[in-house]
Every structure is written in C-alpha cells, then in structure tokens.
Design brief:
Elements (H helix, E strand, L loop, with lengths): L1 E4 L6 H14 L4 E4 L10 H11 L2 E2 L3 H11 L4 H6 L5 H9 L4 H10 L3 E3 L3 E4 L8 H4 L7 H10 L20 E4 L8 E3 L4 E3 L9 E8 L2 E9 L8
Parallel strand pairs: 1-2, 2-3, 5-6, 6-8
Antiparallel strand pairs: 1-9, 4-5, 7-8, 9-10
Length: about 230
C-alpha cells in the first residue's frame, strides 16, 4: 500500500495539512508525489524541506525540470518555457534564501522520472497512448526500457513530463498529475488515475491510496489561501 500526492506547486501549508490527514488514517504508509513542487505557490523551499523531512519521494515534473535546467543547463529547450509558467515566486523565494538552492537542485537532479512499483507506475504526466506501438512488444516492461524510452522522448509534448493526451494501458495502474481536474479522476480505458486537483488555483490538494493495483481511498484537503495569496 502506498499514498501518492498530486502536484504541489509551492503550497506548503496545504501539503502539511494533507500529510497530517494521511498519517491519521495510514500512519506508516510510504508516500510519493507526482512532482511539480515549485512555481505558482508561495512556499517552494518549505515544500522541499517538508518532503525531505518526511522521506517522501517524487517523480520529476516539467516545472521541476524547468527550474533545474534554468540554473544548470541554460541552453536546454525547457528553460525558455519557464518564464511564462509561473516562475516568479520560485525565483523570489530562492533570492531570499539562496543557501537552499543547490540542495534543492540536487534533490531534483537525483529524482527519477517514474516509480515502477508492483501496484502502479507513478510519474508526472504518464506514458502516452501515442507510443503504444513502441511499447506493446516489450513484456514485461522493465525499468531499464522505461528509463531509456522516457529520456528519449523527454522533450516531446507527449513525453512523460508534458503529456496531456490519453494514456497507454500498461496492464497496471498509472498514477499521474500534470493535467488538472476538479477532483481525483479515474480513466478506465487507460487504467489511469489523475491526482492533480489544482491546488494552486484555490481548489484542493489530493492523494490516492493504492493497494493491489487499485485506488482504495482518496484524501483531499482544501487549499490554504495563504499558500497562493499575493
């Protein structure tokens, strides 16, 4: 059994509240997150520190990579996109507290693009159905194959950090963020659950509890407005 938290976007107070709710019901559960820790919300530094303190792993999101590459690979094609994707609060936070910058960039750098667990595949935006022909011949789908595949297609609009197209049915549950929904949404055709419930717009932050390849519980908390005010 695992818990998977949706896109956080600098909403530390909301994240803290959600983690408390998860711990009330599933005290020692292992937690993951679908990435996008930064941008749009007011507290990206606190988000990183809380995940580190709680031992919560995350899959890299497009916002995390735009942040990382802006400081480490300034000619990477992701960097151009960061300027119009809500980066102002992230830049401001690290200008005020520069001693955290390298620590958090390193945390993103070592984070994986996915977690291929027995019960599910956790990633930011998922494995798109447009790649079905490339994937169908590989059974079982190994971590080595997925890593090479995801890196090869990383900069594409249908890649694992950008995709908004229908997802490929892998034969196991895909747990993804990136594409916002008003509430946690399951797609039966692709056997995928979308957990980004638009915390930074004032909606809510959500987590799913996964057991034996199925969603057995959903835990959501409303956005703390101080996370996004200003």
């Amino acid at each position: 059994m695992v818990a998977v938290i949706g896109d956080i976007h600098g909403c530390y107070l909301t994240l803290r509240k959600l983690i408390k709710e998860i711990r009330k019901q599933y005290f020692d559960i292992t937690m993951y997150a679908t990435g996008d820790l930064v941008d749009r919300g007011n507290h990206p530094i606190e988000v990183f520190e809380l995940l580190l303190d709680e031992g919560i792993q995350f899959a890299k999101g497009n916002h995390d990579l735009m942040f990382l590459y802006s400081y480490t690979r300034p000619l990477h094609p992701f960097v151009h996109s960061w300027g119009y994707n809500g980066n102002d609060k992230t830049i401001s936070a690290y200008e005020k507290h520069p001693n955290y910058l390298n620590k958090h960039l390193d945390y993103i750098n070592i984070a994986p693009l996915f977690f291929n667990l027995d019960d599910c595949l956790i990633s930011h935006a998922g494995i798109a159905n447009v790649y079905a022909k490339d994937i169908r011949g590989f059974r079982p789908i190994t971590d080595e194959f997925l890593q090479a595949f995801c890196v090869h297609h990383l900069t594409e609009n249908t890649g694992i950090v950008w995709n908004r197209n229908p997802l490929f049915n892998l034969g196991k549950l895909q747990v993804v963020g990136h594409t916002r929904h008003a509430k946690v949404t399951y797609n039966e055709v692709s056997n995928a659950v979308y957990v980004d419930t638009s915390v930074y717009t004032g909606n809510r932050l959500s987590a799913v509890i996964i057991e034996d390849g199925e969603v057995v519980d959903i835990i959501s908390v409303e956005t703390e407005l101080s996370d996004i005010a200003g």
